[in-house]
Amino acid sequence: MNVSEIIDTQKLKNIPSSYSTFGWTLLILGVLLTVISFAVNPRHASFGLIMTLTFVATVGIGALFWVGIEYLSSAVWSTPMRRPFEFISGVIPLLIIIAVPLLFNMKTVFEWTHRTLYKDDPALLLKAPYLNIPFFIVRTILVFLVWWLFYYLIIRNSRKQDTTRDQNLTTKNIRLSAGFIPVFGITITVFSIDWLMSLTPDWYSTIFGVYLFTGAAIASLAFATLLIVKLNEKNLFPVKLTSDHYYNLGTFLFAFSNFWAYIGFSQFMLQWYGNLRDETIWYIPRIHGSWAVVSIILVLVQFLVPFFFLITKPAKMDPRRLVFISIWLLAAHAVDIYWMVMPVYSPDRAVFALSEVAFLVLSVGILLSVFAYKAKRNNMVPIGDPKLQRGLEFHI
Amino acid sequence: MSERTLYGITALFDAPGKILDASKAATSEGYKNFDSYTPYPIHGLDNVMKLKRSYIGIVTLILGMTGVISLVTFTWWANSVDFPMVTGGKPYFAWPSYVPLMFEMGVLFGAVSTVIALLAIWLGLPRNSHPLHDTEFMKKVSDDGFGICIEAKDPKFDQKQTESFLRSLGAVNVEPAYYEAQSFTLRQLVLDPKFIIAIIVVAVVSSATVYWGLNKMLLIRPWSSLNDQEKVLPETRSEFYPDGFAMRPPVEGTVARSQMPYEFTANDLASAGKYLANPLLPTPQVMRVGQREYNTYCSPCHGYFADGDSRLQGQFPSPPSLHTDSLRLAPDGLYYSVITNGFQGIMPSYARQIPRDERWAIIWYIRALQKSEHVEASVAK
User: For chain B, which terminal residue's Cβ has fewer other Cβ atoms within 10 angstroms, N or C?
Assistant: First the structure.
């Protein structure tokens, strides 16, 4: 295999500076907006920051999940596109920075931190050994540390392969991924329970971790698809990706949009049918008043529209439609997180203020600037990966 | 012998790459009525053959949606129009619980109808054969060969020219395919005795299997454990008891749990009043039970305040007020007897509806009502 024949080495680190400029602008603007929103309304801003943390964490860890799945299943088609996922997962070390202001500020958002409020609630007393501030902080740090550890090891091996061309590094990463995927399943559940479920501390749902996972898988895939298709269509990607590669990305977007609807509906239907106080308590604010409108919009944007938009084969292969639906699904994930978090802050009616704007600007800013930063310093395709050649020859 | 008609020229290739090249060549040569046969799907074949996008997907969508809509219509009609019934405290049309059914029906209708539509439209059901069926060519391409067949109805078709064209593509074997035109008329196939016998055999075998499975197989031993008990069946004699009855009457004087019999005859109000006393104390709990039971069972006729102002006035004889002096001074046992046995054929017995203790609780409540209308002036102050 002669790498230089199939790879345009000029373009390996040639990400246009507009990505970086745009990303950094949004990042600085987002930080400013967040600081201002903290000055205006600290409680509202804390909820906004929880949304930012969830969005960035789900996209970051979701991207690492796709990398792990690629190694674990020895997938070939996605090898030329693996690097964008690795770049996106570069946000993982930053998660703790987003979480710190919240860890110092827990009493403003988490109801369970106020022991006196639930002196008489036996369910919450039972949860007290889990839901207490020291253990929460320990868990958060542990989850981020485990994510960072796997991120560091997997990405390091992948990067080392660019120069050494050592095939054993692929084997090592397959073993690492085999460890990472189950750990990922547990840690994302812990993350979802700690940061989202505990906002409604007396709510029970055993499927919530999976629900957040589906969102993470869609959002990270949508973000990567957006960047991959954009770069490839502008002829900035070092290798030529075909519509067959696009088709697989579109198929996964379609599949995970359906999977999200399946999990979300399972949770809703079981709790609606059971009609128990400990379960419906989460849905009651979300199906009344203006939150009901948000719920319907959520079903539309994250399931029904993508379903009919992506159902045909040409739609999954068309770069313009893929770019559109990627942005659409990223926005849908933002709506999803908004719908999970904000009814706790304002149960009576939907709110949209500075904190929500800060959430959107800051999340996109972090993700884009980290991507641009990583893309400028690393090769855009894994040039040493033994699967690369076959990945480029892939056709359906 | 019937006449043999030329169906087309078949050509066999030995590699999937060659069939792609051959199909491409045939298309660029201008052939339209040809088909490529492969043992497994080969990606890209549609493109080189310049096939139009199949519309089977639209058929599936429409039929799948038909399934969904018919399910929704049926469940709506059954649960909210024909037999409205509250299930689990949900509305009649509880749509979230129908969503799994909608999904199932969508998949079922979509899948089954797609197969039927494929057979009917593309293969021409009830035609059950194809000119290439049972040929060496078809055997080869459904095993390890890759074939192409240019049909005789193609406007560019010319037997010699097409044959040499296919040979020039590097085919392993080029052969014309013939069929007997007669054997492809519809009528003959449907009325074919073999076909009719096959249908009859299938019908007989399947119904016999179902009958045997449900009526005979389930009674064979490993399954029949519950049928096979040591017990006296209905309409048979017990061999254990000399009188032949399997059921024994209870011992004389047996009293069932919590079923204390009433000691006096129904009309003996005097004895009841004399010997029965209220076993309960008028605690708040007892008064609450008494109020609840009184309001449930007694108030429809006696009124909420025992004034005899029945809500059923005019439909039912009104009982007297319970505030008369004679009734106020009547003993508890008399009330108990009346609740238990009914009164003069007008008030029915409430022994089945109201347990003993609750009857006594009602009597305490009646006493409280009576006291409330006869308050001494000194107490009222």
Answer: N
